[in-house]
Amino acid sequence: MSKIIKEILKSLPEEKISDAVFEGANIVLYTKDKSFFLDNEGIIKRIVDDIKKRVELRPDPEITMNQEEAQEIIKKIVPEKAGVSNIIFDTHRSQVVIEAEKPGLAIGKQGSILRDIRNSTLWVPLIRRTPALRSKLIENIRSVLYQNSEYRRKFLNKTGHRIYDGWLREKKNEWIRLSFLGAGRQVGRSCLFLQTPESRILLDCGVDVAASDQNAYPYLEAPEFDINQLDAVIVTHSHVDHCGFVPYLYKYGFKGPTYMTAPTRDVSALLLLDYIKIMRSEGKEAIFSTEDVKEMVKHIITLEYEEVTDVTPDIRITLYDAGHVLGSSMIHLHVGNGLHNILYTGDMKYGKTMLLEPAVTQFPRLETLIIESTYGGKENAMPDKKESDEERGEIIKETVARGGKVLIPTLGVGRSQEVMLILEHLVRTGFIDKIPVFIDGLVWDVTAIYTAYPEYLNNNIRKLIFHKDQNPFLSEIFKEVASQKERMQIIEEAGSCVILATSGMLTGGPSVEYLKHLSDNPKNSLVFVNYQGEGSLGRRIQRGEREIPYGNGANTQEIMQIKMQVHSVEGFSAHSSRKQLLNFLYKCSPKPKKVIINHGEASRCLDLASAIHKVNRIETIAPRNLETVRIK
C-alpha cells in the first residue's frame, strides 16, 4: 500500500473503508457503509485540506443499487425537460454517466438532483451534455471508455502509484533538458521530449501531413528517447501535427497515461481515425490501426483548464486555455519542489475569435516560455477580420453570380467551425444569398463535439448554443454529405453552393476529390483559409502551379488543370499573428527569463527570436530538430 494512502487511512474510522485506490493523481476511497457514504461528517474535507490532494469517497460496488432499478429511479428524479438521452453505468467505479440536453436541469439547484440520485441509488452521478448534433462516431469513442471500465480502474491506480510511490531513478542533482524531436524550425510533427533526473515526458507527438514519409514523423530514434522509460504524454490539442503519432507509441508498447482536455480527446480520436482512412485511400500502409487509436483513448486522462495535477514525482502540470481550437491548451509545468516553471504554448491564439476567448496570460510562476511562431515573421501581419469576412462574402457573391461553386478546403477542427459561423452570419444578415453549404469529411462530427462542450467556447456562442432555436451550427443552410453518391450529386447536379471539406492542405480527404472535378471550370472558386504546409498540394497551387499531375489507378498519371479562381483569405487564423505573439509575451505575468521558439518555418523562428530579444532583452533560442537545450 502506498505511504500516502496509509496516512489517509489513519485519519478514518476503522473498518469504514473497503478499498483505497488511485485514479491518476486523485485518491478514491470506497465504503460499504451506506451512512458513512451519505454523511462522513466532514472527515474527507479535513483530509483534503490537510494533504492538499483530491480525495473522493464512493460507495463500494457491492452496495450500489441494481442497474435497472437505479435507471428507473434516475428517470423519475431528473426532470423531463432536462432531455436525458442516455444513462451509462460504470460498474467498477460506482459512477453513472447521465447524458442530458440541458445539464443544468439534470444537476438541479446547488446540486439538489445529484444529491437525490446519490441518496436513492448509491451511485455517484456524472452529468454530460448531449451534443445538439448527433454523431455515431462520438458515441463509439465514448463507449471505448465504458467498455474498458475495469481496465481503466487498474491503469489509473498504476498511474497513481508511479506518482506517489517515490523515485524510480537515483537523484543526484536537479536539472531539466528539452530535446526537439519535431517542430524545431518547422511547422508539423510537434514533439518535445522533457527530461529531469526522474521524469521522461513527451509534450505533443504529431506528424507532418504535408511531408514525405521519411520526414513526416518525430525523431523517436534519437538516442535519449526510450519508449520503455516514457512516463507520460501531454497533448496540447487535437490537430494531427500535434497528436498524430500518439497511437504509434501504444502500438509499440507504451502503457502510460496521455493527458489532454475532454474535447481534445474526442476530436483527436476522430481525426486519427480519419488519418488512417486517408492513408489507406492513397494506397499507403497506415502507420497504426483503429485498435491503436482505441488503446490511446483507454489511456487518456482528461483535465479541466486550471486543474492542477501531478504526473510524476517531480512534475506537476496545469492546462490553460490556448484560444486555438476547441479544448486547446497551453501546458504549464512546475518542475521539482519550486525548481523551475515552464510554459509550452503549443498552437495559441492571443485574440478573441467568433468561437473562443484569447489565450490566458496569467500564471502562478513562469521562468521559461516555449512559444510557437507559425506567423512570427516580419511579413506576417494579419488583415482586418471584418475586411476578410467581407472579402470572403464578395468571392461567394461573384462565384454564385456566374453560376459556380465555392470549394473551401479546411481543417476538420477549428477553422471549419469558424467558417460555418461566418457563412451563417453572412446569410442571416443578407450579405450573401441563402445558398446551401455542404459539409463533407469530419467537419460534421467535429461540429457535433463543439455543441457538446459549449463551456469551452466564448460567451456569445455559448449563450446561442444553450438556446437551441438560436444555435448557429443548426442553421438550415448546412447540409451533411453522408455518402459518395451525395458527393457526386453535388459535383454534377447541385447549382451554386459552398463546399466545406477536409483536408485543409489538399493532402487527402474529400477536398482533393472535389478539386479534381471542379478545377477545370473557371466559374468555380477555390478559397484557402488556413496555413498551407511546405510541400502540400495547397501550397503548390497557392504559389501558382496550374497543372498538377496525379495518379489515377494502375500507375497511370493524369494532369489536373487548375482553371477555377484561386483565392487566399487570411484574417481569422487560429494562430497568433506576429503582433499577437509579441503582445502575448508583453502581457505574460510573470515575465519569462528565457524564450524558446518552435513550430515555425526557419526564417520565422529566427525572426521572432531576434525581435523578442531586442524588445525584451531576454535570452531567446530557436532550436533545430534533434537539438537539446538545458533549461536548468
Number of helices: 21
N-end to C-end Cα span: 34 Å
**Strand arrangement, major sheet:** 12-11-10-9-8-7-28
What is the overall pLDDT average? 92
Could you walk me through the main structural features you see in this protein, from its secondary elements to its overall organization?
By secondary structure, this protein is an alpha/beta fold. The protein contains 21 helices and 28 strands. Helix 11 packs antiparallel against helix 15 (443-452). The radius of gyration is 25 Å and the shape is globular. The model has no long low-confidence stretch (mean pLDDT 92).
Q: Which tags fit this structure?
A:
about 625 residues; alpha/beta; GMP Synthetase, Chain A, domain 3; Metallo-beta-lactamase, Chain A; 4 domains; 7-stranded mixed β-sheet; 21 helices; about 35% helix; about 20% strand; globular
Quick take:
This protein has 632 residues and is an alpha/beta fold.
Provide the fold topology.
Blueprint: H1 3-10, E1 19-23, E2 26-31, H2 34-38, H3 43-51, E3 55-59, H4 67-77, E4 84-90, E5 95-100, H5 103-107, H6 112-121, E6 124-129, H7 136-147, H8 149-164, E7 177-182, E8 191-195, E9 200-203, E10 232-234, H9 240-243, H10 246-251, E11 258-260, H11 262-281, H12 290-298, E12 300-302, E13 308-312, E14 315-321, E15 329-335, E16 340-344, E17 368-372, H13 385-401, E18 406-409, H14 415-428, E19 437-440, H15 443-452, H16 459-466, E20 478-480, H17 484-492, E21 498-501, H18 510-518, E22 525-528, H19 537-542, E23 547-551, E24 557-561, E25 565-568, H20 578-587, E26 594-598, H21 602-616, E27 619-621, E28 628-630
Parallel strand pairs: 2-3, 5-6, 9-10, 10-11, 11-12, 16-17, 17-26, 18-21, 18-22, 19-20, 19-21, 22-25, 26-27
Antiparallel strand pairs: 1-2, 4-5, 7-8, 7-28, 8-9, 13-14, 14-15, 15-16, 23-24
